[in-house]
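Example record used in the benchmark description.
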Amino acid sequence: MVKGKSKQVAERILPIAERLGSTGRYAGRGVTIAFLDAGFFAHPDLTTPRNRIREYYDVLSGDRGVERLTTPNPSAWHGMMTSVVCAGNGALSGGRYRGLASEAELVLVKVGSLSRIRHDDIALGMEWVLANIVRHNIRVLNISCGGDYEATYLKDHLSRMAEACVRAGVVVVCAAGNAGHEPSHPVVPPASAPAVITVGGVNDEGNPRLGRVSPYHSSYGPTIDGLQKPEVIAPAIWLAAPLLPGTPTSDEAKLLHELDGADDAELQSILARHPGTMRVLDEARGREPYLIRQIVAAQLHDQKVIDDHYKHVDGTSFAAPIVSSIVANMLEANPRLEPHHIKRILIETAERLPHVPVERQGWGVVHPVAAVERAERA
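Model output (structure tokens):
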């Protein structure tokens, strides 16, 4: 049982289904979602009890094969988190942090690295998706990365590839970006393409019942072509996402979580069993329990630790997969829906926030239950 600060954080951050009011009747069954990102990892929330990763491909090196996703590397964490937020089944949280598409199939396409994702490499990833739509029956494409610059969709190759994917029957969902605090608040390709569903963010502080809902600093239009973006918004902060197993960050979180839940008499023995895990805690050995707890509380806060397997994250990179998971549920409910049907239903069922400017939120916060019900009737 967690006794301290991490328990308070875990209780504050509700699962996505509770935050958006999803019933769980659908879970993306029979739907394949492709992800473009810097890298990936075969996290237990995606592979236990059944491995739902159909294929992995690296457009930069040509490497392929799910077996390449078992060794953690620094480039893997972002794509691991986006895919789990969308389609994880909560295996390491007892089902608590389950994505709305927890039974969907996944195709993972690496288009960059921790240090850089290039404009043209995202386009290469979409070209690969186009070539493999039929083989994997890809219905949804989640893109939680953006190009290097603003560009008109009439000439930009990345934007034109996004449009091509939509014409081929794939619902393309893009993160709007996190530049809403900048004077130009630019929306860059592929999020600026007309046919894609561009997702901005909302801050519900992890629990909408608190009544403190505000806009997230997501990018917004008009785009360079005069288009209003985003179309919809979704939670973009206080989102539970997995720690990358086998990394120092994961080891630190496990130690902090153990110390946070321990009695005062256990603190020194726990520190003695984990030398070298965290320098600040090595220096705390032998000190009074209240000082150790102050250090632990500060580290839990700074590292955003929820428990020994999850942390909380923010960004439209994680709002977009939530919308992708809703789209997967809509397609499970009605596989005949085309991308333009999906987009219209999401827009018509979204709920506008009365105190947020329209340009910041588009048609409002996504409403999974209403969207799925409309999809069933369409």
